[in-house]
Amino acid sequence: MVFMKDLPGVEGWDDEEYGSMFRVPHKWVIHPNHPWRQAFDAVMAVVLVYMVLIIPFRVCFSVEATGFFFIMETTMDFFFIVDIVFNFRTAYFSSRNVLIYEPRAIAQHYLKTWFVVDFISAFPIDLFALLFLGGSGTSQRNLLRVPKIVRMIRLARLVRLLRIFRLSRLYRKFQSHVDVNSAVFRLIKLFVMIVVLAHFLACFFFLTAVLEPASAQTWVRIYGIEDSYVFNQYVTSYYWAIQTVASLGLGDIVPGTTVEQVFVIFSITLGVGASSYAVG
């Protein structure tokens, strides 16, 4: 048996107190199981779920955040920067289930594992794209009148979907601390996977039509929702997606272009694979 006090960088720690104490010898280093850290992770999980769901919706349906939602989502973006800082100061358990709290070891471990993904997902790439494309205010406004430029900036936001990896890490941490009946857990997992996957497919199925040339006979034009309200467009897209994920067939919404046909083939394959994986 390996005791933490017998390893380099973990001197002075009483193993008998490990189960009831959450402080570490180094100042400004956070214990991963400290109630405060777990509370922050719970908040981060809620923020991540919201952002992972709202980002494809805003990008694919061209819905910008305004008013309260703009302030809230900007604050959420700031949370990810804070989370990166905390990750540099949060102790971790090694493969031998030993708590490592030496600051340099923590930083090296984080840099070698998830730092790049977390940094890219937290980087405000759309704001920097605006600064890069527009030197002066006038030239920036002129560039933003070009639909392709606006579309590229919006699509750049999809990089933030890398945050789903952070959510998966929090999910594994939560799963290790909660004892749930395996049958019930698989049922919940299947339901959540179907709902979330259908949301993603609905957003990107609509995006395939948006990215097609104006003269193309897309499924949006065929179904007659080209000029409908965003809510109607999303519900129609989700209606198609839930049928596809549940392997119920295409129904009355069919692809109109080759790109859309390829996407439908991919979606059906992904839906069958995801359902099989969730059931186990």
Structural account:
It is a single chain. The chain is mainly alpha-helical and 280 residues long. Helix content is 64%, strand content 1%. A two-stranded antiparallel ribbon has the order 1-2. Strand 1 (92-93) and strand 2 form a beta hairpin. The longest helix has 29 residues, at 182-210. The two termini are 35 Å apart.
Please write out the topology.
Elements: H1 35-60, H2 67-87, E1 92-93, E2 99-100, H3 103-112, H4 115-122, H5 125-133, H6 137-144, H7 147-156, H8 163-177, H9 182-210, H10 219-223, H11 230-245, H12 258-279
Antiparallel strand pairs: 1-2
Helix pairs in contact: 1-8, 1-9, 2-4, 9-11, 9-12
Distance between the termini: 35 Å
The number of helical runs is 12
- Give the integer mean of the pLDDT values: 80
Structural class: mainly alpha
Report Rg.
Answer: 23 Å
Proportion of residues in helical segments: 55-70%
Q: What is the H/E string?
A: HHEEHHHHHHHHHH
Report the portion of residues in β strands. Answer: under 5%
Number of strands: 2
Low-pLDDT ranges: 1-20, 135-146
Q: Which strands sit side by side, in order, in the main sheet?
A: 1-2
Main sheet?
2 strands, antiparallel
Shape assignment: globular
Short recap of the structure:
With 280 residues, the chain is mostly helical. The protein has helices at residues 35-60, 67-87, 103-112, 115-122, 125-133, 137-144, 147-156, 163-177, 182-210, 219-223, 230-245, 258-279; strands at residues 92-93, 99-100.
